[in-house]
């Protein structure tokens, strides 16, 4: 049973076995690639493009901008639409999948997390839980925000700096706070 199946992750799946070993090997490979990416000269566009293609498994879509340093654990499950902007020091832990809609802007030090561990201490080292993150079009995510597993963010929403988003965010609202809550809509 593959670890990346969202239904299995939601139930919690054992992380021991060949799927976990393959995931661990990919994490090591991508860590090496992002380490190389993050020390390239800022204006080395061909070098950055080649490394992003290896990390993502395909070329960056047109007009996507990612400022290093950039971090990811898997890379192959990041879906970026056109005109996505990702500022420096962002982390996309994408094993369960991350989709960023067209025109999305991501501030510095934003973290997307698609996997976690059960709260029960007896299960914590044996299982992974998680779900994909889906970000709609024209979303703005402020500096230092954290987006947790399974969250969907609606079109035109704004996530304030430092917000921790654990629940879905409707379209065209601003959310803020240590447990992001809607504070206004338009």
Automatic annotation (TrEMBL):
It holds the Pfam family Hexapep. The keyword Repeat applies. Signal peptide: none annotated. InterPro entries: Hexapep, Hexapep_transf_CS, Hexapeptide_acetyltransf, Trimer_LpxA-like_sf. It comes from the Bacteria. GO terms for cellular component: cytosol. The keyword Kinase does not apply. Keywords: Acyltransferase, Repeat, Transferase. GO terms for molecular function: O-acyltransferase activity. Belongs to the transferase hexapeptide repeat family. This is Sugar O-acetyltransferase. It comes from Agromyces intestinalis.
